[in-house]
Write a structure and sequence with these properties.
CATH class of the largest domain: Alpha Beta
Shape: globular
Number of domains: 3
Structural class: alpha+beta
Number of strands: 20
Helix content: 25-40%
Order of helices and strands: HEHEEEEEEHEEEHEEEEEHEHEHEEHHHE
Radius of gyration: 31 Å
Strand content: 25-35%
CATH superfamily of the largest domain: Dipeptide-binding Protein, Domain 3
Length: about 450
């Protein structure tokens, strides 16, 4: 009975194939054709058949709509110029430029065929930076002329700021889809690719690193950017399932010990230099710094003499009658105070420990903002894209928090921002670095490490 049944099934299949074989073969070949056609379209024509890919990235900080982080604005647009990692100036929306009248006039030539994300053409009339004390004119649709009252070499960096057409329509790879705010601060925003609408980046902002890492652990974000540590409640995020952690050095930020040069003790250059000789050669929090510039910068002086740790020399400088090339007697301070942010407390304790070895007791006070009155402040500053640091170190600059006064430094800073020739500027800022480090109005500690945490 079983044999008869098997024969019956075989006969039925044979009859079906004989009757519908051509249809089956055609359907199989047609299916193969559709499969490979879809692969081809997916590879070369994703703008026709977009595939959705969404990233949810978490950042820390409070930002208004008018002051979004460069992580976001750089995706949405570019400026007339762009800035390379070494600080050199490259074309952006402008294909070229002319510097006239000894640096008082900048004439930019726009590239042709540029459009904002809403389709509007980019012309000289749609690019408006609204600089104060700068006259902007448009001789034709592709030429922009800026006339300054005085020569200002950092102007090429100023026009690297991304251009928008009055809103959030830029000339970048992404456009703003939506944005949510609370109390004038951005809570989240979504960017969509201008080339492939299926590529979406959703940014969410958190007030602290702790809150951001918690959001990652809870699955609210798939990527965490620019955090200074990779632990959360004693959990090393490297060990978290399906997680990749990468480390990079933030050469745009510099953690620094600022000395109050008007303090009764720290006005003595010999004491400041002695303190710097005690500073450790390494910090686990970042790459050691010896200059107010990034080592990637074309203005960084590679011939600088680094002041490495030398406790014996520091102790010698603190002796009242010690012979030294530094003039003036020194009065040994009974105690110094470092004011710092909570995130730098460990670093401050490390410095206090080495200063104790040279006979100086140090107390640490935690603050929430840059103090107006202090002996030593452990903080940080963002290194400008241009080598001009007039606002930090010039005697007349309101942001000169160290109250540093040096006429030679003042002259170098004044000349540097008026000098257009790059080679001459390099020499000016090489001298600036050398004389500043000799005077030690501050001690540059490290470029902080930052981590990106991604869920695979």
């Amino acid at each position: 009975m079983a044999v008869i049944r098997k024969r019956l099934i075989f006969w039925l299949i044979k009859a079906y194939i004989k009757k519908s074989g051509k249809t089956i073969l055609f359907s199989f070949l047609f299916g193969l054709f559709i499969f490979f056609a879809m692969l081809f379209i997916g590879k070369y024509y994703t703008h026709i058949v977009p595939f959705t890919h969404t990233e949810t990235i978490g950042l820390t900080g409070a930002y208004s709509q008018d002051a979004l982080p460069s992580e976001i604005t750089s995706k949405m647009s570019i400026g007339l110029t762009t800035i390379a990692k070494d600080g050199s100036i490259k074309p952006g929306l402008a294909s070229s430029w002319d510097i006239l009248d000894n640096g008082k006039v900048y004439r930019f030539h726009l590239k042709h065929g540029l459009h904002f994300s809403d389709g509007q053409k980019v012309t000289s009339s749609t690019v408006n930076y609204n600089f104060s004390d700068v006259n902007q004119s448009a001789p034709d649709a592709h030429t922009i002329v800026f006339t300054l009252k005085e020569a200002y070499a950092p102007f090429l960096v100023a026009v690297a700021k991304p251009v928008f057409d009055g809103g959030f329509n830029g000339v970048g790879d992404y456009h703003l889809e939506n944005i949510t705010t609370s109390d004038n601060f951005v809570q989240s925003l979504t960017l969509v690719s201008t080339k492939n609408g299926g590529n979406i980046i959703h940014y969410v902002f958190y007030p602290t690193e702790t809150a951001l890492k918690t959001a990652y652990l809870l699955g609210e974000v798939t990527e965490v950017k620019n955090v200074n540590t990779i632990t959360s409640d004693s959990l090393n995020l490297k060990t978290f399932p399906n997680t990749t952690v990468t480390k990079q050095t933030d050469y745009a930020q510099l953690v620094t010990l600022f000395f109050n040069n008007e303090d009764g003790n720290l006005s003595n250059k010999k004491l400041r230099v002695a303190l710097t000789y005690a500073i450790p050669n390494t910090f686990s929090e970042g790459a050691r710094a010896y200059s107010p510039y990034s080592p990637l910068s074309l203005y960084y002086d590679n011939e600088l003499n680094h002041r490495v740790q030398d406790l014996a020399r520091a102790k010698l400088l603190l002796l009242p009658d010690a012979t030294s090339s530094l003039s003036g007697k020194i009065k040994m301070p009974s105690q110094l105070t470092i004011k710092t942010f909570r995130r730098y407390k460990t670093v401050a304790q490390q410095i206090a420990a080495v200063w104790k070895k040279i006979g100086i007791t140090t107390t640490i006070e935690l603050v929430d903002s840059i103090p107006s009155n202090y002996q030593i402040f452990l903080g940080d500053f963002n290194i400008p894209s241009d080598p001009d640091q007039y606002t930090l170190w010039h005697s007349d600059a309101p942001d000169n928090i160290t109250h540093y006064r040096n006429l030679r430094i003042d002259k170098l800073l004044e000349d540097g921002r008026k000098t257009i020739d790059i080679n001459k500027r390099k020499q000016i800022y090489a001298n600036f670095q050398r004389f500043l480090l000799e005077d030690a109005p501050a001690e540059f500690l490290y470029y902080p490490y930052q981590y990106t945490i991604v869920r695979k």
